């Protein structure tokens, strides 16, 4: 019997513990989960749609593997509820266990924690961390293409699980859990930074640093110190940023070329904010040299995004801040070539927005309009406050030519994007 269309679909308890099912959950293979509902509960596509709130056509597409992946947290929540997932299955899917948040009217949080703790003998901390790490990798890939705003709610919803694991993991599991915890919370800090919330960004990055310090890995510690430096730069505190970057470089012999490059780049940005031209120049040149060396290195680190194109894009932004827009243009143009067709849509869009701003600042309106026309379609599909802030600066520079019909049309489009 498939049951009433208004009731959750009931699957055998042992099925949720099957290795194949766990693999489906960890990779968020929703189409295969729907096939299990059909096979073991006799649920039709309409029945699945009614139980999960996913339109029947979308259910069909997922089961036939012709539709795009599910990204929204609330959709995963509806699917978990509609399939009546037990807590250990929810965790493998990347959702918080229901028992974590089922507090009594008196707010007895300790009771909730005890219920979660009762799950740990069944679901090992390393198993949960491994499942969440797969989801984190998917988040990172998605963020590069769609920006931070759409992913932030999903990542924040998983923080209680990550924090709980880091509090309770013991023995040989603890290093793996701490490594994952520091990476996950640092990513949450980045999402807040890209969303323009620097206080929250610094908070979660500091929490990541707590775990990194206990882990004792100099590369992880230096990377997270660099991230704190980068947040301080964007928050307008270059003095603090310099101190953090210097600390990150103290164990420079333990760092990979990419880690050196990304940290030197952060320090160069702080020097630029302080108007220290020679120090900015020295750090920028060394950062680019290290990034080029890192392109041919296979050492593991967390700075795999740090390419020469990335460093040039960042150096160009600092040159504009130093009042050297004309010098920044060829730097941006080289990054533009290397980012063309890249899956790093957000970085490509940010590079183009900065390039257009540099052209406008250098009194080259025709080139500024051309590049703006290229970035607008990308910006429409991204949720990034950093990108929108750059488009606002571009808009302000373009207003000097607002009487030009083509410029006026671009300004109207930018107004809609910024609003």
Q: Globular, elongated, flat, extended or rod-shaped: what is the shape?
A: globular
DSSP, total strands = 0
Mean pLDDT: 87
Share of residues in helices: over 70%
The low-confidence parts are 100-123
Class from secondary-structure proportions: mainly alpha
The biggest beta sheet, please?
none
Beta fraction: under 5%
Secondary-structure element series:
HHHHHHHHHHHHHHHHHHHHHH
Q: Number of helical segments?
A: 22
Q: In a few lines, what is going on in this structure?
A:
With 419 residues, the chain is an all-alpha fold. It is built from 22 helices and no strands.
Q: What does this protein structure show overall?
A:
The chain is built from 22 helices and no strands. By secondary structure, the chain is mostly helical. Among the domains are: 85 residues, no CATH class; 85 residues, Tetratricopeptide repeat domain (Serine Threonine Protein Phosphatase 5, Tetratricopeptide repeat, Alpha Horseshoe), CATH 1.25.40.10.
Features of the shown structure:
globular; single chain; Serine Threonine Protein Phosphatase 5, Tetratricopeptide repeat
Set down the secondary structure blueprint:
Layout: H1 19-26, H2 30-41, H3 45-52, H4 56-64, H5 73-82, H6 87-93, H7 98-101, H8 109-117, H9 125-146, H10 152-168, H11 173-194, H12 198-215, H13 218-234, H14 238-248, H15 257-273, H16 277-294, H17 308-321, H18 325-339, H19 345-361, H20 365-380, H21 385-398, H22 405-418
Helix pairs in contact: 1-6, 2-4, 3-5, 9-10, 9-11, 10-11, 11-12, 11-13, 12-13, 13-14, 13-15, 14-15, 15-16, 15-17, 16-17, 17-18, 17-19, 18-19, 19-20, 19-21, 20-22, 21-22
């Amino acid at each position: 019997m498939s049951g009433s269309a208004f009731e959750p679909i009931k699957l055998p308890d042992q099925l949720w513990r099957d290795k194949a099912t766990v693999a489906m959950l960890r990779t968020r293979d929703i189409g295969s989960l729907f096939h299990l509902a059909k096979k073991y509960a006799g649920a039709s596509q309409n029945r699945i749609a009614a139980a999960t709130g996913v339109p029947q056509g979308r259910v069909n597409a997922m089961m036939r593997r012709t539709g795009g992946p599910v990204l929204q947290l609330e959709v995963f929540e509806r699917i978990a509820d509609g399939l009546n997932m037990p807590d250990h299955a929810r965790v493998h899917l990347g959702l918080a266990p229901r028992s974590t948040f089922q507090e009594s009217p008196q707010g007895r949080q300790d009771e909730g924690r005890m219920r979660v703790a009762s799950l740990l003998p069944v679901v090992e901390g390393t198993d949960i961390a491994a499942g969440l790490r797969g989801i984190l990798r998917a988040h990172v890939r998605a963020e590069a293409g769609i920006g931070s705003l759409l992913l932030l709610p999903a990542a924040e919803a998983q923080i209680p699980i990550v924090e709980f694991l880091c509090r309770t993991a013991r023995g040989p599991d603890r290093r793996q859990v701490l490594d994952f915890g520091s990476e996950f919370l640092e990513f949450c800090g980045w999402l807040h930074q890209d969303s323009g919330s620097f206080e929250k960004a610094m908070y979660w990055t500091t929490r990541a640093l707590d775990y990194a310090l206990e882990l004792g890995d100099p590369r992880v510690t230096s990377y997270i110190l660099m991230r704190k430096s980068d947040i301080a730069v964007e928050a307008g505190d270059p003095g603090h940023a310099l101190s953090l970057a210097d600390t990150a470089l103290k164990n420079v012999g333990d760092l990979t070329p990419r880690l050196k490059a990304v940290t030197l780049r952060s320090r160069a940005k702080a020097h630029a904010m302080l108007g220290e031209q020679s120090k900015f120049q020295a750090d920028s040149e060394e950062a680019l040299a290290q990034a080029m060396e890192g392109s041919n290195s296979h050492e593991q680190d967390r700075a795999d995004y740090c390419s020469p194109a990335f460093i040039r894009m960042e150096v160009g932004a600092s040159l504009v801040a130093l009042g050297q827009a004309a010098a920044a243009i060829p730097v941006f143009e080289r990054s533009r070539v290397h980012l063309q067709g890249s899956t790093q849509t957000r970085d490509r869009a940010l590079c183009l927005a900065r390039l257009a701003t540099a052209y406008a600042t250098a009194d080259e309106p025709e080139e500024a309009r051309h590049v703006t026309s290229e970035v607008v379609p990308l910006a429409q599909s991204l949720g990034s406050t950093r990108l929108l802030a750059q488009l606002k600066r571009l808009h302000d520079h373009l207003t000097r030519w607002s009487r030009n019909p083509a410029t006026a049309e671009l300004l109207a489009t930018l107004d809609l994007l910024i609003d």
